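Ligand: DQA. Inputs:
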Amino acid sequence: MTTILVLHGPNLNALGRRDRHHYGTLTLDEINRRIEERAAALGVEVECFQSNHEGVLIDFLQARAGGIDGVVINAGALTHYGLSLKDALTDSAAPVVEVHLSNIHARESWRRHSVLSDTVRGQIAGLGWRGYTAALEALAGILGDEAAEQAK
Ligand code: DQA
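Predicted complex:
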């Protein structure tokens, strides 16, 4: 079965009470449940993981890298400076979709640059929690297309 990791970076454990204007009212558990429901409907396996620490995210990714097909990541503020995380994503060789709840391109200038963006297949920003399920659906579709192509 196709396995996709969903990684959440620093401060995303505080969703629901943190800056609701930008990040919405759902908690991370509620978002993860919606991701899991969509994964079940798509017939893919997901594993959701959050950490406030770049090294912990990297350790988790390295531990899973051999057994995963893709990654959906909201790296939080690590998006803007997390070069070790960027390297770990590249090393995993898995296709990655970057998600942001808020539209980072319409906020402070330091949020507009993502160090991950040249590493990822695509970026979804500004769609709230729906960005995660959209990313999952896109990634599952891309992986399915690539598997079909290879089977030819
Ligand atoms: C975020 C945007 C980042 O700039 C911020 O540091 C976050 C969340 C988003 O989902 O919109 O923690 O990645």
